[in-house]
Design brief:
single chain, Lambda Exonuclease, Chain A, two-stranded antiparallel ribbon, 7 helices
C-alpha cells in the first residue's frame, strides 16, 4: 500500500527539504506536512532566498553582493527544475541552483554562518538527490559542486556576506541516496502521531 507523505496531495512527493526535516525531527515533519502548520522563517532563510533571487537575476542593487554574484561559478541554466521523474511511486521535486545542459555540471549555493567542510558536503545528500533524479531521465552528471558563502550579522543585526566563496566538489553516490529515500518513506509509514490525524 502506498504511504502518504503529506495530507496535502500537492505535497505528497519527495524533496530534499522533506527528507532532511523528517531525519531531524519526525514530529516537526508531521506538524508541517500532515497538520499543515506553517514553518517559521528566520532572517537567515529569508536572506538566502533573496540572495538566490538576485543570483537568478544576475545582479544586485547592493554593490558588494553584486560583485560576489559576478564572481560566483555558474552554469548556463539557473534554477533548473528537476524533470518529471519518480522514485517508485513518488515524484521527486526540487530545482538545481545552477545546471549546465552541455557540461552536465551542477552547482549548489549555500549562505550562512555555520561552516561547510568536505565532510559536511559529502554527508549532506542534496547533490546526490539531484544527480540521481537527473539519472532517471538518462542524464549522468559530471561535476557536482557546493559553494558556501559565509555570512555574519553586522552591527545592526543585518545578515551580510563576508565576500568569501568556498567551493567543494562532491562525488555523488546514487545507491546511498536511494537507500536514504527508502528509509524516509519507511520512517513516515511507521511514525505514530501524538494526535489522531483526521482528513
Amino acid at each position: 500500500m502506498r504511504v502518504k507523505l503529506s495530507s496535502d496531495p500537492s505535497r505528497d512527493n519527495i524533496s530534499f527539504s522533506k527528507m532532511s526535516l523528517f531525519e531531524r525531527s519526525p514530529d516537526e515533519y508531521y506538524k508541517r506536512y500532515f497538520l499543515l502548520e506553517k514553518s517559521f522563517v528566520t532572517k537567515y532563510m529569508k536572506f538566502g532566498k533573496e540572495f538566490m533571487e538576485e543570483v537568478e537575476a544576475g545582479k544586485s542593487d547592493d554593490f558588494a553582493r553584486n560583485m560576489i554574484i559576478q564572481a560566483l561559478p555558474k552554469q548556463n541554466i539557473l534554477e533548473y527544475p528537476i524533470p518529471n521523474v519518480k522514485h517508485g511511486e513518488y515524484q521527486i521535486v526540487g530545482s538545481l541552483d545552477s545546471y549546465g545542459d552541455e557540461t552536465l555540471d551542477v552547482e549548489e549555493y549555500k549562505t550562512g554562518r555555520t561552516a561547510w567542510d568536505q565532510h559536511r558536503v559529502d554527508t549532506h545528500g542534496q547533490l546526490d538527490l539531484y544527480s540521481y533524479a537527473l539519472s532517471l531521465v538518462g542524464i549522468e552528471t559530471k561535476k557536482t559542486r557546493l559553494h558556501w558563502l559565509p555570512t555574519y550579522d553586522d552591527d545592526n543585526g543585518n545578515v551580510t556576506l563576508t565576500g568569501e566563496i568556498y567551493t567543494f566538489e562532491r562525488e555523488v553516490d546514487h545507491e546511498k541516496i536511494k537507500k536514504r529515500i527508502d528509509a524516509f518513506i519507511e520512517g513516515v509509514k511507521n511514525y505514530k502521531p501524538r494526535k489522531k490525524l483526521t482528513f
